[in-house]
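Board notes (copied after class):
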Amino acid sequence: MDVDLNKILRSTVQTGTVIIGSKRTQKAVESNQAKAVVLASNCPDDVRKMVTGKVPIIEFPGMGVELGTILSKPFAIAAMAVVESGESDILTVLKA
């Protein structure tokens, strides 16, 4: 199954509910709001360790700046929590 992660991420942001930012993502994981977490390749190790094993993780192969650009944000995104997937297939990426 070939998935276009960029397209899926854009759809998730447009139709679902996401929380952007390392600290906010950590809080979403701690409060069991997050169904999954997207981490950029340059996500800080402390954030990565905090979410590992608690929720499914989707590794974004690019840097935070690239993730921000794909999501039409004018800033870098190291971590993003998926609260609701909306019309996207992001949760199926976890099963692939």
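Comment from the instructor: The chain has a mean pLDDT of 93. The chain is about 40% helix and 20% strand.
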